[in-house]
Request: fold
Amino acid sequence: MQILLADMDQTLLEVIQMFLVLKGQNVQTASNGVTCIRLLGEMQPELLILDDAIMWGRCNGVIDWVSTLPGKSLHSVIIMGDTGSSANWCESGISVRHLVKPFGLTELLQQVDLCRMDQP
Reply:
């Protein structure tokens, strides 16, 4: 599965990326919303794992931009945060799951597997 992982915490990015790559996933990373948006356009991931407080737009700004893209391949998002996000993703047609920080890597992998089943 093609995954874009976006979080401001570089250590967390590296740990999650390494774990998911070891589990057979193709993972790119972004440390801010601007880079995330650029990579969304370039790589067209199937899954976005997104920190709800990412700099430069937060998760709301990123999904607002994604919803304007024609022919987008993104079908699922996992939002990582301290609480459930208040983002309104329902109108975007994108399946959204939430992980409350801190979470275990096996819990993340379970969510990734559920997102894979959400794919058309």
Q: What stands out?
A: DSSP finds four helices and five strands in the chain.
